[in-house]
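Cross-check.
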Amino acid sequence: MQLLVRRLTPGPEVSIIPIVDRKVRVEEGWRLLIVAETRSRATARLSGVVIDHRQRDTVEGGYIQQWEIEIFVWAGCSVFSVSEESGEEHRLTLDVAPHEEKFGAARFREMLHELAETNKDLLWGLSPGAVAATRGSDSPPIVHPTIIEADLPAVLDAIRQLRADPLLLQERRREVLPLSRNRRPDHRTLKWMLSRGQSQIALKSISDNSDLPDPRLVVDQSTVFVTSNHPATRYIKSLLGRLQRSLRLTARAFESVARGSGEGHLADNETRARAAYLGSVVTRAVAEIQTTLRGSLFKDLEPLPLTETTLQAIGGHPLYGRIQTMVRRLLEPGLDLADRDVPSEGLMGALRPTFDLFELLVLSRLQRALTQTLGAQWQIDERPFTPGALLSHDGSSTRQWIAHSKSDRTRVELTYQPEFGAYAESKTELGRRSLSGKRRPDFTLSVWDKQTLVAWTIIDAKYRASRQSIHDALADIHIYRDSLRWHGRRCDSAFIVVPALAPDAIRYSHTDYLLEHNFGALVLDRKPAEPINGQCSLQPALRSCVAALRS
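Predicted model, tokenized:
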């Protein structure tokens, strides 16, 4: 069997991607064409899921089959396998790197951290196989493979940096040592010398031109020691000890699936291969952490729990703070899968796809921006946005963040994935209707005076960056703006929110363009806006509603 991997581009050119040690390096957003020359008909799977062939040609001696794969999300390593009817199997690992023009690895980790700070459950959702999953406090300590592949190498790299440049602590001690001529004795040392006749005699015999300590004269003196016995380093040791124990259990779980023992006997060959790979990654990490803890920096330190002093030291040191953040994420308790009898689905899935995580990040930022913009004169009800509602939503109900004015009956609603029914259907929910087919934008922001709709805005989160992708995304909200009606009213403005914009698409985010058309692209800030000024990149999406409140 022979495999060939090509990258498909919008233009006529097709580039061949080299295969090195049965692994190809690809990026999020690429379209791949995988061609296999086989002696019999073959079936292809990606992460254990069967994919349909695009083309199959009969040639002398066998077949040439093609499969097209579009990589929508950063998935870490995914296993692509081709199995012939004869039993021959060929595996290929797709090492999927993040799209640097969108988020990149660093911002992906920042996104996970921000969502986890909002609520840890928001990270967990539907696997690629559409298997529902929620966190469970009693679930085994196995974190999702994407988290392992995103953070574990970064943790190990940060630990190496810490070993090379740890925080140091100066300590003063009193010891009986030979007295040096270039060190001024303190009062306590002089008193000690005067109380001992031998010391006085030895002092008189020191040569005037010698700066070296006289071995005959030993005195009690103050000495400064530089030590690595810093509270923050001792806390990091306690964290690494916990991480080492947790990763050992993780490695055993992966190895169990790889061997096919226990519930692992239900796993297919691709899942076992994936588990074996992840088990080896975790085992190597455990060995490196063990070597670090036995090294000169940590071996004589007593582990220290998190204290106020430790927290202050870590907060003032970026490297220590980064290690704490990543290790705590790797210590998450794991998943309680809806179907525990299918370990392959548990192994492959449960972290939400990148575009889904980005949508939740936009939702979180919108809530924050609205809270800061409205101020203390509004009472906020955000119960429908609990993680349970977000994870289990089946489209049958509406989820809303609502702010009620304390001075009148005005309210502001942020609705998540509202449904606008098709015009041909007689029944429409809450006055929402599409002039064509049924549609569901990501968010609507509306202002109400009692039961009267005053203004509303459409917001769509799009994990895209290139010019053509931005054009496609803007076309979507063109359709929303023209076709959607709420109580007979067209929307006042419509925007997409994106992680970044290519240079040739930046015009769609310029302030004059947004003001003139009430339409365009908003680039999400890397960090949330500070509560002091409340200014953020999402403000244009709030403008129509804020204006309606002031009118």
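The chain has a mean pLDDT of 78. The radius of gyration is 31 Å. Passed to J.P. for a second look.
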